[in-house]
């Protein structure tokens, strides 16, 4: 049995919108809305969704930077919301983050070696510090000779390697990679993803890998969750997910990926979503996706579909009219 390292239970993160002289709360941005996810040890959970759907907010609640409005987050079976300051300090060691932008996430005035050494210093692990930093640089494919270089002297991909080395410094158990390759050239993206995969095997790491593009996580994710307006729309193991994605939103995202086979590419049919992404402050009633869904009916405007198994075991979908599901199972589930 695989062991759960991280469990997110019905987490909501609603930011108040304050207005007027008295800064009264007028409404809330429902950035994360009832998300439940489990990540097993050694596994990679890919989280995908377009910009603004709540991915980074969820990531920040996992690393303890934001306290969720409600719900619970368990790490190694214990709620991180109950931790005292000292325990939180320990948790911050176990859960590290790699950020999207390798330009702004590194201090431009600090030398690469000092950036990687910073977490070690913060945790007073200063024995053989320089040696340890050089080992980390080697681990992520940087030259130890680059220790004294400043971030701007590195390429984008190399800068992200500095960010990864910094995240690895404290031997974490879980790394949240928040769009780690989105700011990189396509040719460099694969190198960084390969590096993360190699490190996972070597160091027994667990990843939450956030992306806004399904093609990025195809090879790295064991499980995939698709988010839309703060909610999980579909979730399953990678194989079932890419073989028969069920949610119309997922299928729209998949249909946007160009295919490498030129014949198939010629026949590729795009599902184009209508309308704009609604505001998370005023999400649509019923299924939050109904305003853009090509298959939405009256029922979708009124009732909220629950995230439940459709088709393959463990393949969860939040939709009244899932695609690619055998008739038999869709009747059972409706
Ligand atoms: N601190 C905050 N205060 C108010 N709204 C926020 C805050 N952080 C994020 N949001 C809003 O929450 C929504 C989700 O944002 P985010 O989690 O950054 O999305 P993503 O990472 O998927 O692009 C957005 O509408 C964003 O404007
Ligand atoms: Mg983000």
Detailed description of the structure:
The protein has 334 residues and is α/β, with parallel strands linked by helices. It has a domain at 246-334. It has helices at residues 55-62, 85-94, 112-122, 129-139, 156-168, 186-203, 214-217, 238-243, 248-255, 262-267, 298-302, 327-333, and strands at residues 4-19, 24-40, 44-48, 70-75, 78-79, 95-98, 174-178, 206-211, 223-228, 231-237, 308-309, 316-317. The strands form two sheets. The protein has an eight-stranded mixed beta sheet with strand order 6-7-8-3-9-10-12-11, sandwiched between helices. A four-stranded antiparallel beta sheet has the order 2-1-4-5. A hairpin with a 6-residue loop joins strand 11 (308-309) and strand 12 (316-317). Helix 3 (112-122) packs across helix 4 (129-139) and helix 5 packs parallel to helix 6. The protein starts with a strand and ends with a helix. The model is unreliable at 328-334 (pLDDT under 50). The structure holds adenosine-5'-diphosphate and magnesium ion. Adenosine-5'-diphosphate binds at residues 15, 29, 31, 49, 51-57, 280. Residues 8-254 form the ABC transporter domain. Keywords: ATP-binding, Nucleotide-binding, Transport.
């Amino acid at each position: 049995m695989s062991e759960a390292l991280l469990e997110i239970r019905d987490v909501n993160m609603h930011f108040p919108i304050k207005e007027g002289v008295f800064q009264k709360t007028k409404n809330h941005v429902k950035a994360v809305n009832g998300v439940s996810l489990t990540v097993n040890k050694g596994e990679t959970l890919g989280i995908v969704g377009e910009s603004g759907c709540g991915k980074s907010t969820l990531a920040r609640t996992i690393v303890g930077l934001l306290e969720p409005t409600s719900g619970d987050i368990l790490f190694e079976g214990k709620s991180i919301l109950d931790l005292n300051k000292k325990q939180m300090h320990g948790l911050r060691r176990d859960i590290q983050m790699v950020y999207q932008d390798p330009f702004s996430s590194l201090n431009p005035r600090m030398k690469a070696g000092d950036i990687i050494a910073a977490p070690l210093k913060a945790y007073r692990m200063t024995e053989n510090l320089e040696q340890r930093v050089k080992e980390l640089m080697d681990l992520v494919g940087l030259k130890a000779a680059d220790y004294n270089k400043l971030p701007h002297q590195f390429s984008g991909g190399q800068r992200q390697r500095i960010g990864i080395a910094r995240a690895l410094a404290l031997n974490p158990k879980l790394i949240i990679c928040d769009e780690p390759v989105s700011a990189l050239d396509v040719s460099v993206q694969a190198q960084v993803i390969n590096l993360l995969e190699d490190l996972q095997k070597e160091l027994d790491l667990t990843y939450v890998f956030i992306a806004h593009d399904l093609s990025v996580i195809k090879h790295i994710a064991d499980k995939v969750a698709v988010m839309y307006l703060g909610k999980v729309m579909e979730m399953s193991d990678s194989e079932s997910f890419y073989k028969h994605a069920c949610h119309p939103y997922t299928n729209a995202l998949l249909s946007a990926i160009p295919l490498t086979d030129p014949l198939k590419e010629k026949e590729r049919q795009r599902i184009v979503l209508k309308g704009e992404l609604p505001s998370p402050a005023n999400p649509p009633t019923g299924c939050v996706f109904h305003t853009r869904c090509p298959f939405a009916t009256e029922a979708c405007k009124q009732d909220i579909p629950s995230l439940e198994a459709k088709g393959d075991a463990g393949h969860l979908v939040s939709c009244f009219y899932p695609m690619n599901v055998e008739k038999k199972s869709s009747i059972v589930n409706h």
